[in-house]
Every structure is written in structure tokens, then in C-alpha cells.
Design a protein that fits this description.
The protein is α+β, with helices and mostly antiparallel strands and 180 residues long. It contains six helices and five strands, in the order ααβαββαββαα. It starts with 21 loop residues before the first helix and ends with a helix. Bound molecules: iron/sulfur cluster (2 copies). One of its GO terms (biological process) is aerobic respiration.
């Protein structure tokens, strides 16, 4: 078989420049054929859903919105080591490290913490590698089904600590559940 006639998909068709017959030039047969294809699609299983009224069931391995964890005393776990940012294939994470002050021991678990921690949701591919890399069990991808809201403003996609840090009430509730 020559390279010109080779077809990997088996659907390759040779283009012919032969003159059309009278019936072909009316395009009636082609239009009827096309209509049958369209009608056929009415009876096949639909692959689309009416989002947002209908939401697809997620796979068991679904990874949702990130969360920066607090410990059982409500202190932030993150020590701004930067390993999550280093392991991120999309270079979506940036942070600024700061030294914990003596009167901030109730806020941050480690001596160093992230004063700024940002994830660019336009870059993130929700791979979960940041979670894998974290030595402090500080970041994880939740099972939240809430998607990143659409916006015309790029700034809205930069999620800072206000959106990422676990709410204090949640940390306290988790600690209570662990005790029971
Ligand atoms: S989930 Fe993946 S892409 Fe997103 S911030 Fe973490 S490592 Fe980067
Ligand atoms: S989330 Fe984990 S890996 Fe990332 S800076 Fe904080 S402690 Fe380090």
C-alpha cells in the first residue's frame, strides 16, 4: 500500500474531481442523507447535560477545591516550605513566607508560615501533586463539587488565603469529632 492511500482510521476517502451527474448536482440525495443522520441523532443517547440545572455524577477520584488545613487547635499547618509550589506542574502556586511572632503561636503551628498563599485557578489542573508533596499535611483537595466561578476579571481567579484556609469552625468541629 502506498503512502498516499494509507489510512490509519480506515475512514480516509479519496477526493474525486469527476463531473457531477444531473441528480448529484441537485444535492437532493445529499440533503436527504444529511436529514437522516440528524434524525438518527434524536434517538441516540445524549452526551450533554442541562448544566447547571443538571450536574453530572463525579468520578470517585474527583478532586475539588483546595483547602489549607488547620490543626486541632485551629492553627494553620502550612510552614511556607514551598514544596507544593515546586511540585506544581502548572506553576500555579505562589507564596510569601514570614516568621511567626511570639504572640502568634495560637495562629500558626510552625515557626514559619505563609503570610501570602495564592493559587491561580486559571493555571491549576487539579492534579493533586501539591497535596502529595506537602510534608505538613497542610494542603489537600477537597471533595467539594463547587466549581471555580466564571468571571471576566483575571484577578477573580487568584485564590488567596481568604478562600483557601479552612474555616475555624470547621477545624473545631473536626477536632470535636476526633475526640468522640
Ligand atoms: S492541583 Fe496540581 S496544578 Fe493545581 S495547584 Fe496543586 S499541584 Fe498545581
Ligand atoms: S502547603 Fe505544605 S508544601 Fe506547601 S508551603 Fe505549606 S507546608 Fe509547604
Amino acid at each position: 500500500m502506498s503512502v498516499q492511500t494509507m489510512s490509519l482510521s480506515g475512514r480516509k476517502k479519496e477526493v474525486s474531481n469527476k463531473k457531477m451527474t444531473f441528480w448529484e448536482s441537485l444535492y437532493l440525495v445529499a440533503i436527504v442523507k444529511g436529514l437522516f443522520i440528524t434524525i438518527g441523532h434524536l434517538f441516540t443517547r445524549k452526551v450533554t447535560v442541562k448544566y447547571p440545572e443538571e450536574v453530572r455524577t463525579r468520578a470517585g477520584i474527583w478532586r475539588g477545591q483546595h483547602m489549607l488545613k488547620r490543626d486541632e487547635q485551629g492553627r494553620e499547618n502550612c510552614t511556607a516550605c514551598g514544596l507544593c509550589a515546586l511540585s506544581c506542574p502548572a506553576e500555579a502556586i505562589t507564596m510569601t513566607a514570614a516568621e511567626r511572632k511570639p504572640d502568634e503561636k495560637h495562629l500558626y503551628r510552625e515557626e514559619k508560615y505563609a503570610s501570602v498563599y495564592e493559587i491561580n485557578m486559571l493555571r491549576c489542573i487539579f492534579c493533586g501533586l501539591c497535596e502529595e508533596a506537602c510534608p505538613k499535611d497542610a494542603i489537600y483537595l477537597t471533595e467539594s463539587k463547587v466549581l471555580v466561578p466564571a468571571s471576566y476579571d483575571r484577578e477573580d481567579f487568584i485564590f488567596g488565603k481568604d478562600k483557601l484556609v479552612m474555616p475555624l469552625e470547621m477545624a473545631m468541629a473536626n477536632a470535636k469529632n476526633r475526640q468522640n
